[in-house]
Amino acid sequence: MATPSDVVEAALKELDKARGRVSKGHSRQVTQEDLISYLKSVAYTWFKSHRPALQDSVAGTDLAEVDSEFERVLNATDKASARSTYATALHHAKARLIEVRSGLLTHSVSRRTRFLADRRRPEHARDP
Question: What total of structural domains would you count in the chain?
């Protein structure tokens, strides 16, 4: 089973790929059906796969910030939205996910540090 950090890394890779595909175009609006379908799939992957895998490990407020950016992407696919709309939402989603990843890593390190400190203390001095 993938760790929460692995899930975030996978989502970040998908975001990078999506940002690359959006930035390749030259038109102001995204009207290509294959690109719109791809962007929908990236957003749905977040909501149906990545987000549920992170729910127990990440605070709901942190996930809500990421959710709002993926919602922007999903809503934009319903119309011929500007390329900049997608680029901005994907950029912000990536920034929010990087914050989530940092939180996961620092939380993991602090738990590990506490565990090691407990192992070094004598049995009678440990917290109940």
Answer: 1
Looking at residue 64, its amino acid is A
Residue 121 in this model has a pLDDT that exceeds 60: no
Structure tokens at 100: 């989530």
- What is this structure's pTM? 0.81
Tell me the backbone φ, ψ of residue 82, rounded to 5 degrees. Answer: -70, 145
Residue 79: partners with Cβ closer than 8 Å, 6 or more residues away? none
Q: DSSP letter for 49, please.
A: I
Q: Determine, yes or no, domain membership for 94.
A: yes
> Is residue 73 one of the residues assigned to a domain?
yes
What average pLDDT does range 96-106 have in this prediction? 92
Under a CB-based contact definition with an 8 Å cutoff, are residues 83 and 27 in contact?
yes
What lies within 8 Å, CB to CB, of 5 at 6+ separation is: 101, 104, 105, 108
Q: What is the largest CA-CA distance in the chain?
A: 69
Q: Give me the domain span that covers residue 106.
A: 4-120
Predicted confidence (pLDDT) at residue 128 exceeds the cutoff of 90: no
64: tokens are 């809500």
Instruction: Give the whole-angstrom CA distance, residue 8 versus residue 6.
Output: 5
